[in-house]
């Protein structure tokens, strides 16, 4: 039995002994110690705030060929060899197909009332179409949903988290004009079969990652495509989203009374010099090209950002094309897309600096990344708290600033849900994951500031991830879980880390009440 005593969820990280309430506390005092920006904020979240935790089907389910399940693009991509660290696959992963009841108890033990998970399209439709509907797939997800509800946990269901049926990829995948119809047929079936119990739907998780396999090829299906393939696949994804939203809105919403939306991902881009207008413009350019690319059609105009359209048209002309490589939406499609999300789902992990390339004279030991033809240089400060992922540094204040940017750009009324937020550690069995305790404490506190100080309309927070799992191209070399999974044991036992108990404490308190002089204990 190990007992850990905390002098508040921050005091034990940033100070020794009992904290002096007259002095500000900082989670990362060595690097983030601006009293106005970084000082810890005490308070609680709204009473109806939704606390959740997330996984995805391919990353945890395993059972890749059980019953009549069809092959997914990630099954194919991992089995091809040479694409994943250590040759890892998701064939077994966390074996949640067989251990879902145990997973539900993990969620319940953390005091959570919501669980975000995704459906495997190829487990439900082995060949991607309704003609192949699987009784086993239907049975499995019905059992998972019913088990959650029996334990007081509401499901938040993602229809697509990157595992397209290989049978559909063989017919063109996201590049096919038929993709929107394939997707709405799949979504329609899921609404019909599960919508009486599922009241929170997500169409797509992180569109840029969903189509990454059609550009640089680092993700499934691994196609090193042309620039136009990226634009085409993203365009068809948006049309699939719009049609699924329309289907739910017209056929199911009145009776099922749920909500449906999309999840976008974005780092925050901090202008290196906020007093320099060109750096402010540089940061805004990157945010608009990355986040705005998919957000503008849904939350604003029904079309891509004007700046993005102009830039792609100009580049296409320079490359000798007679018209822009970016497909155009019809008037009807724009009307369909505009307003086609009941909430703004946001996956956010980290922050980077942005600077106009003409101003780039920063003398630090860094790896800078140019943003194409935007004239922007971006980098991360190596002094920031690092993770086991090269791209992920802990920069809590970036979350608050990104939420404010979204509220300003897309309207204060749109509800925002943080649908993923987490940090990786190396592949070890160390359950004392202070790095993750610090990360979630600091980021959740910045979220509290965005709500209570900035009055942003944030409705929920979802930690990534429930447990260690298959981390895409990194295989099992990076761990994001709040619960440890022993992948060397055929039974895949789960063990709570310190971060699971720290998160449970935050959830139980609904934030951070003024308890800096009160001791908190949790035990393992």
Give an overview in words:
The chain has about 525 residues and is α/β, with parallel strands linked by helices. The chain contains 17 helices and 20 strands. The strands form 6 sheets. The chain has an 8-stranded parallel beta sheet. The chain has a 4-stranded mixed beta sheet with strand order 8-10-12-11. A hairpin with an 8-residue loop joins strand 17 and strand 18. Helix 5 runs parallel beside helix 7, helix 9 runs parallel beside helix 11 (about 225-255) and helix 16 runs parallel beside helix 17 (about 500-510). The model is unreliable at about 1-20 and about 515-524 (pLDDT under 50).
Number of strands: 20
Mean pLDDT: 93
Structural class: alpha/beta
What gyration radius follows from the Cα positions, in whole Å?
A: 23 Å
**Which consecutive residue ranges, at least 5 long each, have pLDDT under 50?**
1-19, 516-524
* Biggest sheet layout: 8 strands, parallel
Strand content: 15-25%
Number of helices: 17
What order do the strands of the largest sheet run in, or round the barrel if closed? Answer: 3-15-13-9-7-6-5-4
Helix content: 25-40%
Shape: globular
